[in-house]
Design brief:
The chain is α/β, with parallel strands linked by helices. It has two domains: 171 residues, Glutaredoxin, CATH 3.40.30; 185 residues, 3-Layer(aba) Sandwich (Glutaredoxin), CATH 3.40.30. It is 52% helix and 9% strand. The strands form two sheets. Strands 2-1-3-4 form a four-stranded mixed β-sheet, sandwiched between helices. The protein has a four-stranded mixed β-sheet with strand order 6-5-7-8, with helices on both faces. β5, α9 and β6 form a beta-alpha-beta unit. α5 crosses α7, α9 packs across α12 and α12 packs across α13. The longest helix is centred in the first third of the chain and has 19 residues. The protein is globular, with a radius of gyration of 23 Å. The chain starts with a helix and ends with a helix. 39% of the residues are buried. The mean pLDDT is 93. It comes from Halospina denitrificans. One of its GO terms (molecular function) is oxidoreductase activity. InterPro entries: DSBA-like_thioredoxin_dom, GST_Kappa/NadH, Thioredoxin-like_sf. Keywords: Isomerase.
């Protein structure tokens, strides 16, 4: 009974009506507290996205008349960051790409980031949070940290106990508010990560009439606005675009939709490499992380014109059935169609893939033969291919999905396909 009801619950709580009601209640509370233009900012010194965020907040605040309340945090929870070393390496490379895209400051070479320097930066930031010039101080602290100008030794932060107490309070506040990341903005109950989600905040502020200019528009759109809109190379592209894909991942669903668009636009082959979901690989996905991803996927999907929200979670049997039929679909030349149809079915149509009735609908909507597909369900040979894909994903320095590869260029996340488009066009230096 619960499995039958869950898709309808997901659709209801992600509906525009529910969002409007929730926003209205939060806005009313903010007005009563005189905080309708106040944004909470959570910064983790070891997260380079926070350094980029600090560089753009002054102009954002000026455009919309915002005030910022800053909170320094330092913890990376093991259950939220299952591969911290890989995450740190990726975050640095990703911040460098974003800095290039938005013409912000970031070092060309990877900084050493000694733990003593990170601790020093965190303490100094925590103790400056209540000062009017915190943003300027924090920007200089992080600039020095990321450019390797803070000494690793003989650096004694002032009042370390007071700083640690403040950081602990900030982390408790972050946890109670329902999140776990640094480089986060929190405004009237909704979260905005780094530069990537500022366009959602910009649009919300514009809708509220806070823009100082009548023609104000979202500016932080460079990661997605030009996808499939730039001129294509004259010569055909024979190098395939590979996507490392999990059928349970909402971001993989968006990534497949957009990768398919990109491959069609550039007329290049698209190869789908399925991997098991994290939960089916023994890695937990805590409720706060799952809930944030669901809501974030919904707003990203709306922005991109992709249906999402009527979700029938395929975890377990649904995923296994999908992957068992994948080799058959590939033999029929329908590999991409199979994955795309299945992903739409479980993310936007509420079809329960763990049932024969639901699976048959997906199979026939793809153009496959149900009797032949059903015979594939007892074949476990797909597991070897899926495990090979997982190992290759890690070899590339990635651990989560969707991951992308085009030639020697790799990218993680559906909002990093602009890097793949650069490679396809030959724009990367």
């Amino acid at each position: 009974m619960r499995a039958a009801i869950t898709p309808y619950v997901a659709r209801a709580i992600s509906s525009p009506l529910t969002r409007r009601v929730r926003r209205g209640l939060k806005a009313r509370k903010a007005r009563s507290n005189a905080t309708e233009r106040q944004v909470d900012v959570y910064l983790n010194p070891r997260d380079p996205h926070g350094y980029l965020l600090l560089q753009v907040l002054p102009s954002l605040g000026e455009r919309f008349g915002l005030t910022f309340r800053y909170h320094t945090v330092t913890t990376l929870q093991d259950d939220m960051f299952p591969e911290q070393a890989l995450w740190q390496s990726w975050a640095i490379a990703d911040a460098r790409d974003l800095a290039r895209l938005y013409r912000l400051d970031f070092p060309e070479n990877d900084p050493a980031l000694p733990e003593a320097a990170v601790h020093d930066a965190a303490c100094r930031m925590a103790l400056a949070e209540d000062q009017a010039d915190f943003a300027d101080q924090a920007l200089e602290i992080l600039r020095s940290l990321w450019h390797g100008e803070i000494p690793a030794n003989d650096s004694t932060p002032p009042e370390p106990e007071a700083a640690q107490q403040r950081i602990a309070q900030n982390e408790e506040r972050l946890h109670e508010a329902g999140h776990y990341l640094g480089a986060m903005l929190h405004y009237e109950g909704e979260w905005y990560w780094g530069l990537d989600r500022l366009d959602h905040l910009e649009r919300r502020l514009i809708q509220k009439g806070y823009g100082k200019h009548p023609n104000e528009a979202a500016r932080f759109v460079r990661t997605w606005a030009d996808l499939c809109r730039k001129p294509k190379p004259a010569e055909p592209i024979t190098t395939p675009l590979e996507i490392f894909f999990s059928m349970r991942s909402p971001y993989s669903y968006l990534g497949l939709e957009r990768a398919r668009q990109l491959a069609d636009y550039f007329e290049c082959p698209l190869h789908i490499r399925p991997v098991l979901p994290m939960v089916m690989r023994g890695q937990a996905v805590p409720p706060a992380k799952k809930w944030y991803i669901f809501k974030d996927t919904k707003r990203e999907a709306e922005k991109l014109g992709i249906p999402y929200g009527f979700v029938a979670d395929p975890l377990g049997a649904g995923v296994e059935r999908c992957y068992a039929i994948f080799p058959y679909a590939r033999e029929q030349g329908l590999a991409t169609n199979w994955m795309h149809t299945f992903a739409r079915a479980v993310n936007a149509r509420g079809i329960r893939s763990e049932t024969d009735r639901g699976l048959r609908r997906i199979v026939e909507d793809t153009g496959l033969d149900w009797e032949k597909a059903r015979k594939c369900l007892d074949d476990e040979s797909w597991r070897e291919e899926v495990e090979t894909n997982r190992q290759e994903l890690y070899r590339l320095g990635l651990w989560g999905v969707p991951g992308f590869r085009f030639g020697d260029v790799t990218a993680w996340g559906q909002d990093r396909l602009w890097l793949i488009q650069e490679a396809m066009r030959g724009d990367r230096a």
